[in-house]
Amino acid sequence: MRLFWHELRTELLLYMRSRELAFFTFLLPIILFVLLGSVYGNDTVKDDPGVKQSKYLEAGMIGYGAISIAFAGLAIVLVIRRESGVLKRLRGTPLPATAYIAAVLTSYVIAFAVEVACLILLGRLLFDVGVPDNLGSLTLALLLGVVSFCGLGIGLTALIKSAEGASAVVNAIYLPMAFISGSFFAPGSFPAFLRAIADVLPLTYFIRLVRGIMLHDDQIWSHGADVAVLAAWGLVGVLVAVKAFRWEPKEG
Amino acid sequence: MTAIAVRDLRKSYGELEAVRGLSFEVQVGEVFGLLGPNGAGKTTTVEILEGYRKRDAGEVEVLGTDPAKAGGDWRERIGVVLQSSAMYETVTVAESLKIFAGYYREPRPVDEVVELIGLQEKRNNRVRLLSGGQRRRLDLGLALVGDPELLFLDEPTTGFDPGARRRAWEMIRSLRSLGKTILLTTHYLDEAEQLADRVAVLRQGKIAAVGAPAELTGSTLQTEIRYRENGREVVVHTDEPTRVLNELTSVALAEGRELEGLVVRRPSLEEVYLSLTEEAS
Q: pTM score, two decimals?
């Protein structure tokens, strides 16, 4: 337990020191929220009459923030640490693998929590979006989402061969996913084939869950299917990770 | 007391037999060198001893424990310097050491380690701003901060300029005087000669020779005698340098001439090493 707290402090220090990573994975969702919200925040949503775009967008950007931080950011950081040999060095210390993984995950959950707080605060200040009511359900949903995407992020590291390729592979997956799952625009206007793809992506279910809770005051248990699909994806990531996660860089 | 015991160690990667029946022992407090060209099996052997790799056959005990089954308590007692110097680039030297000190129950004070590795002036510099030699010293510091009994150094000075190598050697000698056991791999002969109490020369996954550097150079090769005669270089290799030299000098004295450029030389470890590692290939 002592090692967990020590490593959590280490991870938070490392997170705050890594400027490029913080910019791309943490700030980009906030910047996009402000930009897109300013462009069409006052319109109403076609798919969801009576809901202001800015409110709809805020929920979408929480989804984008989740994959940006927990999926993209975590995968890139772990691949870089693996290929540079940092993970191998850590394996040579008494720090147990479980304490390490738990501390890394917790640090990304904390980063995501700060992100959500920033988005909600900005929505309140800039676009007059109210603070959501069902905070209990929302917290559970966000926790489930961020942990599932962390699981997928760790699983993804097994499929990435080199540090150079990490951000290319990750961007090629998570940016289209954010778009197709409706982070930026309501998916109602998408052609059928995009909607078919959206139906398998975990982010679609996470955003639907968050929108239900934030826009319609739903409770998390009334979204059983969304919760199940999201959790299943997270489990897939964890299973891939358990089978194929590597601590050592590729040989010469 | 034995710190490391290896008996008939074997390891293959697919078709390639990297280690083919190694046996050696390292005593507590000893600096032991594994010497050999690239591909001789040095790193494979060390990484098995460090618990990173599984062996195919043989027995291995490091500090009384099988590294393949060892846990955190065992890792408290060892320090590892890998071949590549991976570290967090965005934190300072002192922060790095503090991070790694936190993994151990009884770490060495960070300031003491900073001094030991001679990075006092770089204490609060980011790691990414360090030179290659400074990084390697921090590397060693990160392995030392847990105050290990046994230290593995895998090619600790590869890529150093001569000055940096000298400083690294002095540092390793000072560790030895602290009573640490050190297993060192290197392909530099002078490094093994300078640092190691005993050396095992590896060739294609086997031990070609083992002993103190002086023993290896003393026993294996013949003494070399060189001089010039009528402008031509004469080289004599002999097992009886006293007799040969006596004959040469008495002939020269009788004829009243000088043995120009006379040199009598024992083989260096380098020549022993080359003769050992080249025999097979």
A: 0.86
